[in-house]
Amino acid sequence: xxxxxxxxxxxxxxQALLRDETLDMSALDKLPMxxxxxLFKEALIGRxxxxxxxxxxxxPFPCLPVGALMKTPDLETFQAVLAGVDMxxxxxxxxxxxxxxxxxxxxxxxxxxQSDLNCFSWCQKLFQxxxxxxxxxxxxxxxxxxxxxxxxxVADTLQSLDLKGCRMKDSQLTVLIPVLSKCSQLSKVSFxxxxxxxxxxxxxxxxxxxxxxxxxxxxxxxLECYDELGYVSIERFVQLCAEQIDxxxxxRQPKNISFxxxxxxxxxxxxxxxxxxxLCRCWR
Length: 284
Ligand SMILES: [Zn+2]
Known about the structure:
By secondary structure, the protein is an alpha/beta fold. It folds into 2 domains: 8-99, no CATH class; 101-284, Leucine-rich repeat, LRR (right-handed beta-alpha superhelix). The chain has 11 helices and 7 strands. It has a 7-stranded mixed sheet with strand order 1-2-3-4-5-6-7, with helices on one face. The longest helix is centred in the N-terminal third of the chain and has 16 residues, at 75-90. The chain binds zinc ion. The site of zinc ion (ZN) has 7 residues, from loops.
């Protein structure tokens, strides 16, 4: 005779909630707050889209860490999250991801699809964003027009933009340059770990004359810094980064600007040129 540990009442309650496709916000309003994170995680993993949507709409905390939880890309689940955000913002009663539009969107380390990205261009609740964090979201094979449309809509409000590790190419930065040049409130940008040439970086910097509030700016070292095997040529790295900064100073006075190589495959560190220049361990 085998003895099995019976499921806890909490586990049974979670299972019942996940099975209930008619779950709505009024039911979730009575759910103890401490149950939300674990139930939401299970709903995401199990792709219970109705529950995900209802939970986002009833989310009781000021922060919803969606990016870290969505390890496996799924369009329906992502759309359910966005639909839940819309419902959450439209609820009649709020205290005074509360009536204001979304100010921060953080979707990080996520394998985004073109369909996911397209949502950015029509979700009006995003159109007053102050902070957009998409670090680690791989964009190199996507059409960035939806991101361009979002940036057009937040050009007067956006203060920080993190596109670190997105592996964008020249052609993609070209799409974004005209609209980025209009984001007059930008004070912090990160473009580390993208695949930009010297000429496109220069083109971008030349279009930043109006970004007078820029305080911290981080760019990928140009591709010309690497040799044919992909290793950094330190002489070229220092020379090209110095050239970029000198040319930028002719149009604008940068405050805290840096260029960084990719992580060195030998020592696991990167070389950074700018304020606090430092080389990876191989070159010290
Ligand atoms: Zn190294």
